[in-house]
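Notes continue from the previous slide.

Worked example: a multi-chain complex. Inputs as given:
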Amino acid sequence: MKLKRSGRLVDMTRYLMEHPNTIVSLTEFSERYESAKSSISEDLAIIKESFEAQGVGKLVTLHGATGGVKYIPYIKKKAAESFLTSLGQMLSSQERLLAGGYLFMTDILGDPIIIKEIGRLIASVYIHNDIDVVMTMETKGIPIAYAAASELNVPVVIARRSSKVTEGSTVSINYVSGSSKRIQSMVLPRRSLSKGSRVLIVDDFMKAGGTIKGMMHLVAEFECLTVGIAVLVETGGESPKLVDRYLSLLKLGQIKEGTAVPIEIGNYFNYFREE
Amino acid sequence: MKLKRSGRLVDMTRYLMEHPNTIVSLTEFSERYESAKSSISEDLAIIKESFEAQGVGKLVTLHGATGGVKYIPYIKKKAAESFLTSLGQMLSSQERLLAGGYLFMTDILGDPIIIKEIGRLIASVYIHNDIDVVMTMETKGIPIAYAAASELNVPVVIARRSSKVTEGSTVSINYVSGSSKRIQSMVLPRRSLSKGSRVLIVDDFMKAGGTIKGMMHLVAEFECLTVGIAVLVETGGESPKLVDRYLSLLKLGQIKEGTAVPIEIGNYFNYFREE
């Protein structure tokens, strides 16, 4: 279609946002809009400037044979801090306290806008790590996993507690839950991971880290590599953790009766790099 | 921030796409860009034209006291047909056949781009139904529920097979699985649905419809209203279904040994209305 610059800018913005972390060649855009590459380059410069001024994403230009442009998730440090601070405040309400040191987060995990932002924060950190797949354990980590995977443009695989007829043959491992010390199982469909995949493990909540460690074990069973681990909330009380290196967005402190739930920003900014 | 038209177009496109089904007033945009409302109106006309030419969304203009604009999901009939046809082809591979008449769909349900498109198709149908919340049953319906909920800009609630300590007090019902005839339970956290909510039920696969019927029962327990039911795949063999009115994107026919899996487009276009 032949469009004026204004129409091209709208459509290119939409197209890039719907195809994150995907290289689009100048030729592709040039043919799509029946416009000279020089005009397309100017359009892209305008889009790049707008995204970067808003701190909502980056346009990366690639030169050479695979030349083109890709939109990648990005967030400014200040915006990340303000999001995590307000999320922490939402979670610090005393009504959220549940037995066993857990927090009621179901409503927050059900909010697509919050989830999308959590996914963007996680993806911003791992965008240069060549992630092939995001893995989580059912159930509550699933939306976070999809949100991060959407921004990274990679598939999600979901480990389950038991094998289901709808998933064909599975690989199963046993693991010890870090906090309850019980032996549990975790299964993954045989067809879900190809050998050598670079995996980002994501979950909603980490106490001692037994479930995460189980997922790492499962990744290794498939001869894949755990490249990163990201959790929404870690508990600060239980230490040492069973896993060494992980990213946490929020950290839950020691809970005392009658006071607000102590939530602080996790180790996120140890991993975050403002470019 | 003061921006030229080109910069405004990029930022407004991005902003509207990130806030679907949300009214943005002209005043808001006018203040954000330090520009006259007349300029903003012209910008919106350009964005509207581009979205509608591409058939990827609509800009709805609202007049009066709540005046403004909102971006709503939309898909052209032809684009929906072509998406469903190619999804059907992906699913018709014989390797996907599993015991019990199930199909292996885990890979497809793990693909964020496919899931996003499925969500858009579902949301396009229910966008004018004032949905308050999307409900699904763990596990495989979850990504579809989030995808539809993102486009509708409403929260997701997830029914589970058993209650979890992390969800506080729950409401539980028993239901009879339509195909296996076994009695099963389904629980939902007490805090997850407020009375009177208009609920869209979403799932990945429907045989006789027992699980869907269970969810409807649960919706009624919370004094809420089931406004719509949407499933990715229904089986054609088992009839009558336990639910009367539902939308299906794809329909799985009778499976015969040694032939391709018979998949056709479901009843989607009975509900779809091209505007």
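Summary box: Chain A has a mean pLDDT of 92. The longest helix of chain A spans residues 37-54.
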